């Protein structure tokens, strides 16, 4: 297969076997618009998977689900500076556009949008989207401004790509809740909030949630990192089995630290939709959400209670 890289034009090209190749647009918004119009021609539907690249099976699962939902699939790769804090890993974040494009082409993705920072935030850019309330807890508390950056870039990406469906991983549960809230509050129609689809977390064989940031782990840390999900499953079993939430979370803290993590940002039981903190489990749709640091990585995970 051969990639069709078209920074300045939106015309699809043919792969060497005659199949439509991935069209990659690195820059021009006008070219993106033309490519999107071409895909939508004749009433065809479009599903969109926004990413920051360094693609793994979690991302590719979103792509495969997207293909089931719509005629065409667009993926974006953009490491969004506005969602990184001043001391976070913006510079270290893995970037490997060519390898990512090859993976997407092999999955039959139609269009890859990989804008530069200047295209996304040109000189004079001044607008911020803030989803208040949902962004004050969990990762929002630990990473001030992070979800403003996410909401802002996702809103821009939605306007650029104008998809019928957008797919996000449940691994980033709070992000998904915030994006749905934004889509509802702003009356977005492309996509409509009901077409923002959450895809269950894809895990390694030992339970670790796949994440681009797992690459920061040494071999020893990678083994230890499995302790996070193990401790979560134990805590869930103990809450569902009747233990108090406080005692289950205290044991989870101990277990996660004992497995090699150096600190825990949060470990909470929360209402799955409102993210309200739950001090007792009353049978509602609840999630256990955890963020913890190991080596130079900050890993997150969440699971349903039932
Ligand atoms: N293990 C996974 N299972 C399902 N979806 C995932 C998984 N990992 C990431 N995603 C989803 O892929 C999309 C793009 O995520 P992103 O590019 O930030 O990757 P990531 O692996 O989450 O990276 P990070 O290390 O920044 O958390 C998001 O919707 C995210 O929730
Ligand atoms: C949704 C997203 C692509 C916005 O930059 C990012 O937060 C991510 O990859 O989860
Ligand atoms: N997948 C979450 C993006 C971030 O941590 O910035």
TrEMBL record:
Binding of beta-alanine, residues = 83
Q: Kindly state which keywords UniProt assigns to this record, in alphabetical order.
A: ATP-binding, Cytoplasm, Ligase, Nucleotide-binding, Pantothenate biosynthesis
Pathway this chain belongs to? Cofactor biosynthesis; (R)-pantothenate biosynthesis; (R)-pantothenate from (R)-pantoate and beta-alanine: step 1/1
Q: Where does ATP bind?
A: 52-59, 169-172, 202, 210-213
The positions annotated for binding (R)-pantoate are: 83, 175
Alphabetically, which GO biological process terms does the record hold?
A: pantothenate biosynthetic process
The protein's matches in Gene3D superfamilies, at most eight in alphabetical order, are given as: HUPs, Pantoate-beta-alanine ligase, C-terminal domain
What is one GO cellular-component annotation here? cytosol
**E.C. designation(s):** 6.3.2.1
Q: Where in the cell is it found?
A: Cytoplasm
Q: Which GO terms describe its molecular function?
A: ATP binding; pantoate-beta-alanine ligase activity
Q: Where is the active site?
A: 59
- Reaction equation(s) it catalyzes: (R)-pantoate + beta-alanine + ATP = (R)-pantothenate + AMP + diphosphate + H(+)
Q: How does it assemble?
A: Homodimer.
UniProt record similarity statement: Belongs to the pantothenate synthetase family.
Q: Which PANTHER family match?
A: CYTIDYLATE KINASE/PANTOATE-BETA-ALANINE LIGASE (PTHR21299), PANTOATE--BETA-ALANINE LIGASE (PTHR21299:SF1)
Further information in the entry reads:
The reaction proceeds by a bi uni uni bi ping pong mechanism.
NCBIfam families for this protein: cyt_tran_rel, panC
Report the function annotation for this chain.
Answer: Catalyzes the condensation of pantoate with beta-alanine in an ATP-dependent reaction via a pantoyl-adenylate intermediate.
Q: What is this protein called?
A: Pantothenate synthetase
């Amino acid at each position: 297969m051969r990639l069709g890289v078209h920074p300045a034009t939106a015309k699809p090209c043919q792969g060497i076997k005659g199949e439509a190749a991935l069209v990659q647009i690195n820059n021009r918004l006008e070219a993106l618009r033309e490519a999107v119009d071409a895909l939508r021609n004749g009433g065809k539907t479009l599903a969109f998977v926004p990413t920051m690249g360094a693609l793994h099976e979690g991302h590719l699962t979103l792509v495969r689900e997207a293909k089931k939902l719509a005629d065409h699939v667009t993926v974006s790769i953009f490491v969004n500076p506005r969602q990184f804090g001043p001391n976070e890993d913006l510079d270290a974040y893995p970037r490997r556009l060519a390898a990512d494009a090859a993976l997407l082409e092999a999955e039959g993705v139609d269009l890859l949008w990989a804008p530069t920072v200047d295209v996304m935030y040109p000189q004079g850019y001044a607008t911020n989207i803030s989803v208040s309330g949902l962004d004050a807890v969990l990762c929002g508390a630990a990473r001030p401004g992070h979800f403003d950056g996410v909401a802002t870039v996702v809103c821009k990406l939605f306007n650029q790509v104008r998809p019928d469906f957008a797919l996000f991983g449940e691994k980033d549960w709070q992000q998904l809740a915030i994006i749905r809230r934004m889509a509802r509050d702003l009356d977005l129609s492309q996509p409509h909030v009901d077409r923002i689809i959450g895809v269950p977390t894809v895990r390694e064989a030992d339970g670790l949630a796949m994440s681009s940031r797992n690459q920061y782990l040494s071999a020893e840390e990678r083994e230890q990192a499995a302790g996070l999900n193990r401790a979560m499953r134990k805590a869930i079993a103990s809450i569902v089995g009747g233990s108090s939430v406080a005692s289950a979370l205290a044991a989870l803290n101990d277990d996660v630290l004992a497995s090699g993590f150096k600190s825990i940002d949060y470990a909470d039981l929360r209402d799955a939709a409102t993210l309200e903190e739950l001090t007792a489990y009353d049978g509602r749709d609840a999630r256990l959400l955890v963020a913890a640091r190991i080596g130079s990585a900050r890993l997150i995970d969440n699971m349903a209670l039932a």
